[in-house]
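pinned: reference chain
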Amino acid sequence: MLMEDGGLDTTSEEYRKLSKAERRKRRRATPKYRNLHATRERIRVESFNMAFSQLRALLPTLPVEKKLSKIEILRFSIAYISFLDNLLQ
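pinned: its C-alpha cells
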C-alpha cells in the first residue's frame, strides 16, 4: 500500500475499502507526511520564538541581557502596558 516515495497507493482496492478516518490515519503515518509535518511545526515554533524575542526587546529590564521565560515576558508585558496606560491617564 506504500509507494516507493513514501506516499500511499490510493488506487489500491485495499485503500478504497478503508473508512475515511482510517485513510487519514494511514496517510499521516507515512514518512513523507511526518517529514512535512515536522517541517511545518519547526517553522511554527521558530516563528513563535521570534515573536517572543521581538516582544522581549520592547521590555525595559535591568540588566538588559537578563533571560526571561515566556511566561515572564507575558506577565511583564501586561504590567508594562498597564504602567504605560496609567501614565497616559
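why pinned: DSSP finds four helices and no strands in the chain. The chain has one domain: 13-88.
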